[in-house]
Amino acid sequence: MKGYTIGLLLAWIALVVDAQQLQFKNKEFELHNVTGEVVRFQGKKVLRIERDLNAIPFDSTRVEATVDEPHYARLMDLDDFENGTIEVKMYSQLQDPAPYSGIAGFIGVFFRVQKDDSAFESIYVRPKVGKSDNQRHRNHAVQYFSYPHYKFDTLRKIAPFRYEGSAPVALNEWITMRIEVDGETAEMFINDMRYSSFIVDKMLGTSKKGYVGLYVDIGTIGYFRDLKVTKKALQVRKAGEKVSDI
User: What region holds the 3-keto-alpha-glucoside-1,2-lyase/3-keto-2-hydroxy-glucal hydratase domain (predicted)?
Assistant: First the structure.
């Protein structure tokens, strides 16, 4: 009986581990504090993820402390991304009913993620305000943050608008995001535009290399496809110059 019980326990643990991993085309993803599945959406197979509020609860009275956390799908075959290109097609929908009045379709990319999720860099967008008729709102369409010390609200206080910007993004449409990472610099290109929409001229994290991940936050249903990651050597280039076609 004891051996039978241990066997059942081991089988249950194996199921839990398997449930946290997804095979999508030729890539394997590990789910960190998100729920996910491979679904058919608009005629294509995509990876759908949502933040798991049971794993990391959200508190509307402590917004910065409970957002921009390690809730993402980790690409498992690359643990040493340092410099290069990350490109992905992503589609953001709002959950209905909304779990929080301030949801904006938060969706984007993590990079240089440490194995234990203790540190990483990120650029994400808020598609709900990307085409707002209020310029101040548009200026919050893109966000950089560096986990754990420099999340969005901290950056707004110490360096207003330096780590945020505008971009031509919207809810319920496919957005191609390409991030060019080079040393302490990261540039974001949207929808194959020749020039970047956003640049981080000096990233703030101490993490120099690590995993890449796909991120969503509170109230977002995120769909992802066509993820491409290319490692490159450190290079010096003119800000805003397009350096590759994928």
Answer: 79-229
Quote the CA–CA distance of 157 and 162 in Å, as a whole number. 10
For 53, 121, 181, the CA distances from 234, given in Å and listed in that order, are 38, 17, 9
Nearest 5°: CA angle at 73, between 206 and 48?
Answer: 145
Structure tokens at 155: 């950056």
Alpha helix (H) residue ranges in the chain: 2-19, 135-138, 152-158
Give the CATH number for residue 134.
2.60.120.560
Using a 10 angstrom Cβ sphere, with 0-12 exposed, 13-18 middle and 19 or more buried, the burial of residue 3 is exposed
The H-or-E segment that residue 176 falls in is: strand 174-182
Please say whether the beta carbons of 29 and 73 come within 8 A.
Answer: yes
Question: Domain count of the chain?
Answer: 1
The answer to whether position 240 is within a domain reads no
Q: Is residue 24 within 8 Å of residue 47, measured between CB atoms?
A: yes
